[in-house]
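[step 3/7] fold_predict: job queued, chain A
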Amino acid sequence: MLPRWLSLQKDNLTIFIRPDSIVVRRFKGFIGAQLSCVDQQKIVLKKKVGYSDLELAYLTQVLQTTLNTERWQAASATIVLSNQFVRYAVIPWNAEIKNNEESRAFLRHQFLTIYGDAIASWNMCQSPAEYGQKALASAVPSELLQTINDVFSSLQITLDSVQPYLMHIANQAQEVIKQQNLQKSYWLAVIADGRLCLCLIVEGEWRWVKAIQVEAEETVVGQIELLIQREQLLNSVVADLAKQQRQVPILLHWSNMPNSEAVKINNHRVIRLPSSKIFSNEPVESLSARLVTS
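[step 4/7] structure written:
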């Protein structure tokens, strides 16, 4: 038998941390081939976890108890954090930045301008962007990241990355765009865990992001329409798209809404993204197959 580090198979965990639950899914497959979900478990949290009330000792206990079992002894793991724990911003290009230190200072300044000192101690990270383009950035409570790192330091599982849920879905959206040869200008709407994230991408560049609490499931479509209408008045990029009469589709991920159910949003073509189904009894292959367009 080959040592784990020489194995021809991949064996990975995807661990979703949500305010009310932790979902663990195990994927296996040969390197270079599509991985299959071979096992999954949903742990309902007795204490609700929020960005302002992280309950870190309890979260540590649940993660350690779960991941120390033989069932979840995979080679590596990716953590995906609910949007409830994350704050987002689109960072403008700054040609005057000369080094990483200045880049970090500029990133911090942008976040504090938007969210204030409440997130001054948070970990802030900016995604890569093309020269001259804006970039999507995220901020996560530093103590939450430290807790995750501490848990994995005592395990034989390699922690590959910690991803905000919006980034996780955005990566799926980009894959769908390539596979379906769709235009590179679109709205991305992500609805999960009581939070709506609405983003605008124009020719592959992040131009705008807004995250708000969902008022009620039945009013989410109205919230999306209202946000877009407001940006047509306040945002020159959105206004220009409207003046050019460019029909920019909405790529929609709605975790609690079946993909077979059509969603209609005024003046926009809606493309349902394949649901990542944070927890599902269906095999993973059936969850990533096709788009539902309305």
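[step 5/7] annotate
The helical segments are 56-67, 100-115, 142-153, 165-180, 220-234, 236-243.
DSSP finds six helices and 14 strands in the chain.
exit 0
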